Amino acid sequence: MDWQASPHAGDLFGELQLGDDAPPPGKRAPSHLIPGLLACSAAAGAAAWLSDHYGFPIILMGLLIGLALNFISRDQDTHAGLDFASRTCLRLGIVVLGLQITFVQIEALGIQPFAALLVIMAIAFSAGLAGARISRQSRYAGILAGGATAICGASAALALYGVIGKERLSQAQFALTLVGVSLASAIAMSIYPALAGQMGFDDKQAGFLIGASIHDVAQAIGGGYAYSDVAGSYATIVKLARVALLAPIVMLVSLWLGPSSGQESRPAWRRFSPPWFITAFIAVVALNSLVALPEAAKTAALSGSKALLLLAVTATAMRSRMDLLIELGWRSLTPVIVATLASFLAALAFVSLSIGS
């Protein structure tokens, strides 16, 4: 197959799960990546500048700018670089994200809040499936929306789409889900702290509500600190506990769905093994739990992870077809909306019960 000429060669990130089995783009010098990487980097840089100066969520800005510039991908010279950014940068970004989590942080949450967090995540995931059924979409759209809402927003959606596959869910639906999740996080970051204040929640209760129900990591932490420093610290622990569950949930979804049509020829042990970047994520979390890294290193790692994920999301948006997005319509956001509401109400119910007890 002519990799460069294939109409599907650039779909999203070439299927994360394909790993080493993905057909190589030929024995060319790395310079063939430059056009796509330059275009993606420029768009991501603009998104970062707008986010820094106007306070918009950086992932959402990357998505919108990438979608606006999707005409660039008509030039096939950009395909290799965009595919590299959306595939390799994504994997590395998820791995580096593990440096923000330790098993001690999860343990510090306590058994009861952690159990409640698992219930809230299960409700959000189930609500995504229900929303897909209500809007007459496939269960894969529900899995993507429910998983992104339950775990950690855009990065979880990217990881889940790697095991769902482009054969089972269109790239346009994926891009629209990313937009919905990012918008929901931005709205929640503005509204949830105010609601927690109106309900008279203390710092810990507000931190749990915010950390357990806002999708993206940055928005959850920002919402917590918007309430108070104590609430921000607790929201961070709660949110990172959700992020730590990314690997097991992606592995369970992979086993549940089985291999996609493009993976059936692979050996069984390869088809049902977790993607390498998920295994590496767990290893990094374990390393971070055993070795005390300097705060400067963790801060740099967080910035690096954000940059890599921004490049991946921007490249994905630049490779999306606007005509398919328009054809899907806003009805396709139903799973995200239902899962978001269910996540918030479940977290609110737990906090309210803790007040009563």
Number of domains: 1
Our measurement of the CA-to-CA distance between the termini, rounded to an integer number of angstroms, reads 64 Å
Structural class: mainly alpha
Question: What pattern of helices and strands is seen along the backbone?
Answer: HHHHHHHHHHHHHHHHH
Percent range of helical residues: over 70%
Q: How much beta, percentage-wise?
A: under 5%
Mean pLDDT: 79
What characteristic shape results from the CA principal axes? globular
Radius of gyration: 20 Å
Q: What's the tally of helices? A: 17
Largest sheet at a glance?
none
Compose a concise summary of this entry.
With 357 residues, the chain is mostly helical.
Structure description:
With 357 residues, the protein is an all-alpha fold. The protein has one domain. 71% of the residues lie in helices and 0% in strands. Helix 6 packs antiparallel against helix 7 (154-164) and helix 6 (139-150) packs across helix 17. The longest helix has 28 residues, at 171-198. The radius of gyration is 20 Å and the shape is globular. Residues 1-26 have low confidence and may be disordered.
